[in-house]
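Predict fold of RNA polymerase sigma factor; 180 aa.
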Amino acid sequence: MVTEETLVHQLQQKESLSEAFEVLVNTYKTQLYWHIRQIVMNHDDADDVLQNTFIKVYRNIDGFKGESKLYSWMYRIATNEALSFLKKKARRGGLTDGELQEQIVQNLEADVYFEGDEIQLKLQQALATLPEKQKLVFNMKYFQEMKYEEISEILETSVGGLKASYHLAVKKIEAFLKTD
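Predicted 3D structure, encoded as tokens:
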């Protein structure tokens, strides 16, 4: 297993870039896919956003200064790409962000890649009601089991602020689930 430092060095050298990029993609594609999928909720959209994420990483790897971990930097890119994708999708459809979220959750039942049961569907409906930051923090903490320090690095927010966002998200989700 190549260290992150070695991988970054190889990615920034012309002669080793393609081989190193293949290692990078194979190492991170599954984690990034599921991170993106939690945001966009659709398999095909997640694949598109993942591809755009890796294109951005490839084009900007020379600008990576190592001030954060490589995966944190890539998660930040993936998060921004997914959120931009949703904003564009809403605009194209003439919808507000909230209306798009409702539509996405409604489409989950028809999504052949969605493997959840009724409880999972209710959880996704609850998540769709959350503000963007709370939803991101909840997804990263609950589904991806990230530590607050990692989330802080990715979202460039204080750990205290993240804990507050997560707590609020949990309360709102609990309240939503009790309304049935």
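The chain is about 75% helix and 0% strand.
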